[in-house]
Amino acid sequence: MDFQTARQSILNQTVNLQPDQQPFIHCLRQGQPPIPGQVTTLLLALRVVGEALRQEPTLDRTLAHAFFVLTYESRNLYQRHHQAGHEWPPLLDEDLDRIAKAVRDILADAA
Question: Model-level pTM?
Fold first, then answer.
C-alpha cells in the first residue's frame, strides 16, 4: 500500500463517506461492529501514513479530521453504545486502543 492509497483508505473510513459503502465510522454510529478486516486495513493504512509523514512538520486538515474521528468519535460511540447495553465484539475495545496509539505515534512524529 502506498501513501496515497493509505491516506484515501483512512479518509473513506472516516470523513469521505460513500452512500453505497459501510465505512468504519458509519458502522459504529449505527451501533454495529466494523466489517471484518476494516480495523486491520485501518491499522495498516495508519502505519503507511505514519512512515510517510515521519518528520513532516504539518498535517493537512482533512487527514487531521480523520484522525480525530478515528480516535475521539469512535471511542465515544463505543462507550455510548456499551453503556446502553450494546454488546460489542470482544476485541473492539483493544482495536480502538491500537488505532489511538497509531494516531498518537503519527502525531508525535509530526510534531
Answer: 0.91
